[in-house]
C-alpha cells in the first residue's frame, strides 16, 4: 500500500466534520432513493427530528453533536450491505429486503464502519441497534431498556420520516398504536413534546428544517491528526467504492497514490493530507448515478454517458456543503477536466486548472488503468505511462506530471 510509504504527517488538518457527514448523508439518500424511494434529504430530516426529540432529555453539547452525526450516517452501510449480499446471492431482491425486513446486516456493517469517525462521546451500539423494536421483536431481539437511547431516538425518527407523507393525525395515531411495540413510551413522548402540532412538523416538508438543524448543531471545524484524517477519508471512500463492484477500491487507490505522489514532489504535510481527502472523495458524486449505468457492460448511449459525466458535477455540489472545503472540493471534482477545455463537467481550460487539480486527473487515470476490475485485468505501470504520455501529447493532461508519475511509481 502506498499509504504505508507516506512519511508520518505531523501537522494537523482542520475539517468541518459535521458538514462532511451532512454532505455524505445526501449521497446516501441517493442510494436509498434508488432502492426504496426514500425522499430527498432523508438523513438530514432524521437528524433534525432526533435533535428536536433530544431536548426532552436535555441532551446538549458534545452528546447532541454525536447524536446528529449518528443520525446523518445511520444508513452508512447500505451500499456495503447490497454489495456483500449480491456476492452471496445474485437473485436477492434488495428493494424487498430493505423495505420489508430491515435486515440486521447493514446495522452490523454500519456499526463497524463508524469506528473510523472521531466521536466525542460513547456511541457504541447506536448504529447496531437503530432498527430494534421496544418490545424485543427487532433484528437482535433487544428490548427498549437494552437499547442505547440514541438508537431508540433514531429508530423513531427514521420511521417517522419514511411515513411522513401521511397526515399529522395519521402520524400521531401510528405512534400511539405502536407505543411499547415498535417504540418505547419515552421516545413517543419525546416526539410529541418536540412536535406539538401539524404546523411544527411542516418544516420537514417545506425545507426550512435544514437551516434550523445547523442552528442547533454548530458547524465548528475540528482539528485532526493524520491517522484520524485518514480514517475519516477512508470511511467516505469505502461508502463510494461499495456503490459498484467495478470500482471496489478505486477511491482508496486514488487517495493513496495522490498523497504519495504529492509527497514525492515536495508538498507539505497539510497539502498531502488534503490530496488524500480529495482522492477519497473525488467520486462521491457517483452515488447519484444509477448502477444500471455504472455497471452497464455495453457502450453507453449518449444520454447514459451524459448522466455518467454528471457524477463529477455531483461531487462538486455535494462537497460544496462543507464549510471551508473549496480547495479540496475543486481538487476532487475537476478530475475529468482536460487542459484543452474538452473535459467535463465544467470545461475548464489549462489556465483554470492548478497543479493539484491536474495531479488528481492524472492519478485518477493511472489508478483506473492499473487496477483490476471484473471485466479487465489492470495494465502494467509502463503501458499505463505510455497511455498517459499519449494523452499529454493530445493536450488532455499535464506532460510534466505524467513524466513524474512514471518516475514516482516506476520503482515500486
From TrEMBL:
<protein>
    <submittedName>
        <fullName>Putative two-component system response regulator</fullName>
    </submittedName>
</protein>
<feature type="domain" description="HD-GYP">
    <location>
        <begin position="225"/>
        <end position="412"/>
    </location>
</feature>
<dbReference type="InterPro" id="IPR037522">
    <property type="entry name" value="HD_GYP_dom"/>
</dbReference>
<keyword id="KW-0614">Plasmid</keyword>
<dbReference type="InterPro" id="IPR003607">
    <property type="entry name" value="HD/PDEase_dom"/>
</dbReference>
<dbReference type="Pfam" id="PF13487">
    <property type="entry name" value="HD_5"/>
</dbReference>
